[in-house]
Amino acid sequence: MSSSFSPPAVGAGGGAPAASASSASPAASSSHPDKRRKFTIQSDFGQARGFRSRKSRPCDTCRKRKTACKIDTAPPCDFCKLRGLQCKSSGTVGSYVDGPASSSISTPTSAIKDEASPGTAVSTPAFKEETASITTASTPAASPASIARLPGIESVSSRYLSSRPPSAHHGSPDTEMTHGMSPVYHLLNHPHPHQPYHQAPTPSAAAASSPAPSSSGPSSSMGAPPPIRTLEDAPGRTSHSMGPAAEQDALLLDSFRSVIMNGHEIDAEFVQVFPGTSPSSHHGPARPPVHFCFIVDEFFPHDDRVKNECSDAIEALAAPHADALVRAYFRHVHPVLPVVSKGRFLRRYVDDRRQMPASLRGAVYALACLFWDREPSLPGSRAPYNQHELADLALTSLQRELDSPNLDKMQASILLLHLKPNDVDSVEHPRTWTQTAQAVACAQMIGLHQDPDQWSIPSWEKKLRKKLWWATFAADVWSSLCHGNPPHVYPSSFSTSPLTTDDMWFDEEVASDLQRFVDQDASAHLFIGARFVEHVKMAVLARDVLATAFEVPQTNTSSSAYRPHRDLDHLYNLRTNLKRWQSMVPHCLGMPPAPQHQLLPSPVGLPPASSSNNAPLHLSYYATQTLVYRALMSPATKAARADPSSNLRRYFRDARVEFSGFATFMTQVGGADLNGFWGRHGRSQLILCGNFLVYLFLLAHERDDVQAAFRLIESFHESLARLETLADSTARLLIRPVALRMNSFFVQAPDLMRNPAPGAEMSTPDSYTT
């Protein structure tokens, strides 16, 4: 097969193959007067493939290495999966060109797709003729077809890009893949990059990308993959998700799509990102096509004026120290709440920060200013302004910006949930819950609740969308615990696949010119992804408990009797899963022993990541454990307390013994942990755990249980008193609500137990003695 392949044909134009054949030496042609017949077996790629299968093509990597390509059900193959490589097939055999010359040649498809590998020329039958005429181009000016193939909106973006001067290039492919910048962004912001867009991606960028989407819809009927387009960065446009009950049927849009005309202008158009699948043994049930509606961004003049005024005011406050605030954010906030796309944010911040929404910039500055005294380059011991000054401007701008939601505004919505609470609040403010509802709505509006793994969008966007969805999911769960409200997100309302560490790590590495904004410790980058994945796992467990045991009681006659804890077997399994999580949590995410806190630096120092950033994760574990045992021990009534066969008595001792770990955890929390970033949900989680200690004490029946429960309360109370002496002004707001409850218990409990209120269910523990 290799003898019939002519490398020069790859770099030639439309007539080059004939010229190459005619210029062959006579000696070579006379030595082989009879050409052997070539037989081609029709094959495909994207399904299960056995050893040496001839009906299924091997992937490009295995074919080039001449190794077996074994696929169990769907790509990636065993070899690519083991090494984290892309697993794709470009088409016919012999599409590779070895040697230095081929490494600088690629089609527009490989320039657009971050899945493309260096030295690969797409030569499927559908694209063979187009490839022959395009690959000769050495500059964008020589390949007008490449402009129409750029990601973005097919019609409008094509017309926009065709009006650009021929010198408009992409940025470095390596930079694009590392920092998630779309080609449209680079055309707008990097007209003279150091590396032309037609150069093939670097191996590190290609290895970091995900496999190309495989589908069985109309877009791939000719063997060509659907075009890769980004849903972000389209100039003057915003993409809105079109759900199953949207204005037009998804299957109809699959075969007939038109734009929405307003006179002679286009107001909106529909773009397909997934062609759907037919029912099969490999893909499972049929999946409908997925479409997005691209809307022209046109707003009221007064809304634009307000957004511009907020942007100017935010920069006026932060501009003198903006770089230091960004450093403080990525050092103290990002390790616990890594929702901001680090590379993407920093790249645009350096190029022109005002191209980002004012809400996102304001949220980053506002959260960072709480750590003013931890950043050596910032003058003084505190910021010259209050956090709420920046936060109010960011929230005001966000209300207007949500007319055109996107990934940037989604990040701002999540960050603004975690502002410092009011100094006088002893109960969580309702705004936390209402703003969470807004964040969930924003996520659904841009389609984060749908699994993007098979969409024809860049791999960086798939990973960022997954990360933001699960951050929204976790925020919804923990916010619901503030007042016991049912979460907005329920199991059948989303299909996004589980978050992995690979989804987190792709954006933690930044370019060398951006290193001044981030921590230089490489291991800290790994901890960030692992920590957030475990945080999401805990939120999933907590959501499962809420769905199992804390549903809203039904009052209609057709519903069954209210049974808040009807599935004890499932709750028991959840308890087992919690215990397994605690025993298998990575060592890097553990809490250090209590004595080590004597050696930790003061709050003005820089706390080590292994201690100050892991405490919120463990607090969420104990909050989930509280929910599980409250569900298992229900109902918490006087009759159940007196009944030896009740669930309350059956699980009480297990709850007391296992929850003693919370009291131990509080002794391990030191000053660096306390004064780190906990997020807004730490207060309600602490309240939940502190109240559960009181719950155990009041429900104890045996003398030993009463004394043991009281010792847990005393230990927790002592830990709070110790932490109050170490807390800064922000940390005091974290522990103040639960400290008030504990102090109230010690003051009021003796009188309440001796003289219970009329109709009170609970009485003094039989063997309790002061």
UniProtKB/TrEMBL annotation:
<feature type="region of interest" description="Disordered">
    <location>
        <begin position="1"/>
        <end position="63"/>
    </location>
</feature>
<dbReference type="GO" id="GO:0001080">
    <property type="term" value="P:nitrogen catabolite activation of transcription from RNA polymerase II promoter"/>
</dbReference>
<feature type="region of interest" description="Disordered">
    <location>
        <begin position="157"/>
        <end position="244"/>
    </location>
</feature>
<feature type="region of interest" description="Disordered">
    <location>
        <begin position="96"/>
        <end position="124"/>
    </location>
</feature>
<feature type="compositionally biased region" description="Low complexity">
    <location>
        <begin position="196"/>
        <end position="223"/>
    </location>
</feature>
<keyword id="KW-0479">Metal-binding</keyword>
<dbReference type="Pfam" id="PF04082">
    <property type="entry name" value="Fungal_trans"/>
</dbReference>
<dbReference type="InterPro" id="IPR001138">
    <property type="entry name" value="Zn2Cys6_DnaBD"/>
</dbReference>
<dbReference type="InterPro" id="IPR050797">
    <property type="entry name" value="Carb_Metab_Trans_Reg"/>
</dbReference>
<feature type="compositionally biased region" description="Low complexity">
    <location>
        <begin position="1"/>
        <end position="10"/>
    </location>
</feature>
<keyword id="KW-0539">Nucleus</keyword>
<dbReference type="GO" id="GO:0006351">
    <property type="term" value="P:DNA-templated transcription"/>
</dbReference>
<dbReference type="InterPro" id="IPR036864">
    <property type="entry name" value="Zn2-C6_fun-type_DNA-bd_sf"/>
</dbReference>
<dbReference type="GO" id="GO:0005634">
    <property type="term" value="C:nucleus"/>
</dbReference>
<protein>
    <submittedName>
        <fullName>Zn(II)2Cys6 transcription factor</fullName>
    </submittedName>
</protein>
<feature type="compositionally biased region" description="Low complexity">
    <location>
        <begin position="17"/>
        <end position="31"/>
    </location>
</feature>
<dbReference type="GO" id="GO:0000981">
    <property type="term" value="F:DNA-binding transcription factor activity, RNA polymerase II-specific"/>
</dbReference>
<dbReference type="GO" id="GO:0008270">
    <property type="term" value="F:zinc ion binding"/>
</dbReference>
<feature type="domain" description="Zn(2)-C6 fungal-type">
    <location>
        <begin position="58"/>
        <end position="87"/>
    </location>
</feature>
<feature type="compositionally biased region" description="Low complexity">
    <location>
        <begin position="100"/>
        <end position="111"/>
    </location>
</feature>
<dbReference type="GO" id="GO:0003677">
    <property type="term" value="F:DNA binding"/>
</dbReference>
<dbReference type="InterPro" id="IPR007219">
    <property type="entry name" value="XnlR_reg_dom"/>
</dbReference>
